[in-house]
């Protein structure tokens, strides 16, 4: 995998015949108590030195991923838009910076249905973020959670279930990884003998986990 472009809100890589772009929607600060040691023990003064804190908290990046096969773009997760903290909602800027046209995004798939992954379907002004969207994939065990989101009501009937082992196309396979949420799903992306795993919120602090 070769990095080809980068900016404040994106990094793009060449993976075989595909272009995969990490898109920065923003960040959220979480208390240190969210990190646990074996036995569900909290960290105290024994916090490892490689863990970088910002104002005493964990700063976690919120990202989405665009997979471009040269014809259409599949988007994994959509960020939070204006539904949570003001430190999020930068996905439109990230797409523009990465030169990914929103009208090329035909498929959106969610790793899970927490609000910082799904609310970006709608822009802060109320318009659809992806006007050419034709396929919306939600982990099967979380369809009920998705359809309980009033802000996303107009997408409730468009959502179809996503299951582990399902192929979104030639290059993308869904992998069931329940735990962070009941239907949490990772995505294995492969092309020309190269593979990358889009893991959603399976890992938050790579230097520790």
Q: What would the principal axes of the Cα set say about the shape?
A: globular
Radius of gyration: 17 Å
How far from one another are the termini?
23 Å
Which CATH-level-2 architecture?
Answer: 4-Layer Sandwich
How many strand units? 14
User: β content, as a range?
Assistant: 35-45%
In this structure, how is the largest beta sheet organized? 9 strands, mixed
* CATH fold-level topology: Metallo-beta-lactamase, Chain A
Element-by-element helix/strand order: EEEEEEEEHEHEHEEEE
> What number of domains?
1
Q: What is the name of the CATH class? A: Alpha Beta
The mean pLDDT is 95
Query: Which segments are poorly predicted (pLDDT under 50) over 5 or more consecutive residues?
Result: none
- Total count of helical runs of at least 4 residues: 3
CATH superfamily: Ribonuclease Z/Hydroxyacylglutathione hydrolase-like
Helical proportion, percent range: under 10%
Explain this structure.
The chain has one domain: Metallo-beta-lactamase, Chain A. A hairpin with a 2-residue loop joins β2 and β3. The radius of gyration is 17 Å and the shape is globular. The strands form three sheets. Strands 1, 2, 3, 6, 7, 8, 9, 10 and 11 form a nine-stranded mixed β-sheet that branches. The chain has a three-stranded antiparallel β-sheet with strand order 12-13-14, with no helix packed on it. By secondary structure, it is mainly beta. The chain contains three helices and 14 strands. The longest helix has 7 residues.
């Amino acid at each position: 995998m070769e990095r080809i472009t980068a900016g404040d809100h994106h990094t793009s890589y060449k993976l075989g015949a595909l272009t995969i772009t990490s898109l920065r929607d923003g960040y959220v600060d979480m208390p240190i108590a969210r990190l646990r040691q074996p036995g569900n023990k909290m960290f105290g003064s024994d916090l490892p030195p490689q863990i970088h804190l910002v104002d005493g908290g964990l700063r976690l990046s919120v990202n989405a991923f665009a997979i471009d096969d040269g014809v259409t773009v599949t988007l994994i997760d959509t960020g939070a838009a204006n539904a949570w903290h003001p430190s999020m909602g930068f996905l439109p800027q990230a797409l523009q910076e990465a030169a990914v046209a929103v009208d090329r995004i035909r498929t959106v798939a969610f790793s899970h249905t927490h609000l910082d992954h799904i609310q970006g379907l709608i822009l802060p002004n109320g318009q659809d973020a992806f006007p050419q969207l034709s396929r919306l994939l939600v982990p099967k065990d979380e369809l009920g959670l998705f359809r309980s989101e009033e802000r996303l009501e107009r997408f409730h009937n468009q959502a179809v279930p996503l299951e582990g082992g399902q192929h979104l196309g030639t290059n993308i396979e869904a992998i069931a990884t329940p735990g962070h949420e009941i239907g949490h799903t990772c995505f294995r992306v492969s092309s020309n003998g190269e593979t990358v795993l889009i893991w959603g919120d399976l890992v938050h602090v790579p230097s520790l986990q």
